[in-house]
Specification:
By secondary structure, the protein is of the alpha/beta class. It folds into two domains: about 210 residues, Rossmann fold; about 210 residues, Glycogen Phosphorylase B (Rossmann fold, 3-Layer(aba) Sandwich), CATH 3.40.50. About 40% of the residues lie in helices and about 15% in strands. Strand 11 and strand 12 form a beta hairpin.
Length: about 425
């Protein structure tokens, strides 16, 4: 049996790869192929899956839904021609008699239906949390949102309810429950975004009942997530490094006023491998950071990245790593986030994130506002970098808030192991 995976975005590619990796471990694994509908699908190179059609990076980077200008840029860049060529490739492939796994939003789902093949759908883009939570509809939302009873439109649901659609895997339990009410074959198997993150991290400092006191005894660790696409990530870094400066100054000032020791601060920056460290280093130096070797830093954990860069300033250490992403997620007590998937994963570990809206094309004010609805109280949105320090202080002083954040994040993002559960279900329902 052959299986073709369609995905439309970098994060969707990663989710798809995790499911395909699990399928490959089965004794009678299907013959796999893929077609990333957005970008070049570099994630698929991890598992050596052949790409069956034309791939290309569009000017928007895949964020055509953010604003009309991005869509116009992509149309001028050949979006319609690319999509038509990809659809023809999918239809040619489907004539061989295989099945399709669509990962993302309505675009791969529509391609799966147009192929004429049997298919399943992993919905990563939409969640009922955008318009409601467990208590009901969110306040102050436009009436047209969810007008049909779900964040998924009737056309989406028709494609998911089609007889050739054998299974739908929503991103959270709330969305699964709503779709099941429409007789859609939705299964609550978790969110693959939380897979491949090592379990049992140390308890965040914030959850300690003596957090304010013990914060003086060990470092407060703050993860920095500027995003993965250039040049946007560099612009985001300018905002983040200003927020970091505010935190350093605030904690030093408070220690001076209280005549106490200055707490040690560690900032862990998770930098995407595709980005250049040079602009980030220059901006950091411009904010008064002094470069030093990793070995000379006062940290009590190992950074598994020989190319990591370290800086120091006053009572703080700043580390930029491109090869130890898990460390940044697991060690951080909270994070300053201007990213998509990375923010969701951090919050899924039960930790708080503070977001600063950027200029886009991804992390715009509209995106940040929507992300706060998706992630609820775990994501705290501020308007300016200077406001971040105050939020960090409030978190340290409010254990009840932190308990709510922890429970909320784990509930909305789910438990690890979803890719394995989805792969097993695909073997049962889609692949004889």
């Amino acid at each position: 049996m052959q299986l073709l995976c369609l995905s439309n975005g970098h994060g969707e590619d990663i989710v798809a790869v995790r499911i395909l990796q699990e399928l490959q471990t089965h004794p009678d694994a299907p013959e796999l192929a893929a077609l990333p509908l957005v970008g070049e699908g570099r994630a698929y190179s991890q598992i050596e899956v052949p790409i069956i059609g034309t791939v290309r990076t569009m000017p928007s980077g895949g964020f055509v839904y953010m604003e009309s200008r991005q869509l116009l840029r992509d149309l001028r860049g050949g979006l319609l021609q690319l999509s038509w060529a990809q659809l023809k490739a999918v239809r040619r492939w489907s004539k061989k008699g295989g099945v399709i796994l669509a990962v993302g939003d309505i675009v791969p789902l529509l391609f799966a239906w147009l192929s004429g093949a049997t298919y399943a759908f992993v919905g990563t883009a939409k969640s009922e949390y955008y318009i409601r939570d467990e208590s009901g509809r969110l306040p102050n939302r436009p009436r047209f949102e969810g007008w049909s009873g779900s964040v998924y439109l009737p056309c989406d649901r028709w494609l998911m309810k089609h007889p050739r659609c054998q299974a739908v895997f929503p991103r959270d339990s709330l969305t699964t429950e709503v779709l099941q009410n429409f007789s859609i074959p939705a299964l609550d198997l978790g969110n693959p975004m939380m897979d491949k993150i090592e379990s049992e991290p140390p308890e965040p400092l914030f959850y300690d009942p003596d957090a304010e006191l013990k914060e003086m005894e060990r470092s407060l660790i703050i993860t920095l997530l500027p995003g993965s696409r250039e040049p946007e990530a560099y612009e985001n870094w300018q905002q983040i490094i200003l927020a970091v400066a505010g935190i350093v100054d605030t904690f030093q000032e408070q220690s001076t006023l209280a005549n106490s020791a200055i707490p040690s601060l560690i900032f862990l920056a998770a930098i995407a491998p595709a980005l250049s460290l040079e602009p980030l280093q220059e901006m950091s130096l411009g904010q008064g950071w002094v470069e030093q070797s990793i070995e000379s830093t006062a940290i009590n954990f190992k950074v598994n990245d020989p190319t990591a860069v370290a800086f120091s300033q006053k009572n703080a250490t700043l580390i930029l790593t491109q090869d130890d992403y898990n460390l940044c997620l697991l060690q951080g007590d909270c994070c300053i986030a201007m990213a998509g998937t990375a923010t969701e994963q951090f919050i899924g570990l039960g930790k708080p994130a503070i977001a600063i809206p950027g200029n886009g094309p991804q992390f715009t004010p509209a995106f940040a506002e929507a992300q706060t609805r998706l992630l609820g109280p775990s994501l705290i949105l501020v308007e300016q970098p200077e406001q971040v320090a105050g939020i960090v202080q409030q978190l340290l002083l409010d254990p009840d808030w932190l308990q709510l954040i922890g429970e909320n994040g784990r509930r909305r993002m789910g438990k690890p192991g979803a890719a394995h559960r989805i792969a097993n279900c695909l073997k049962e329902k889609l692949i004889p």
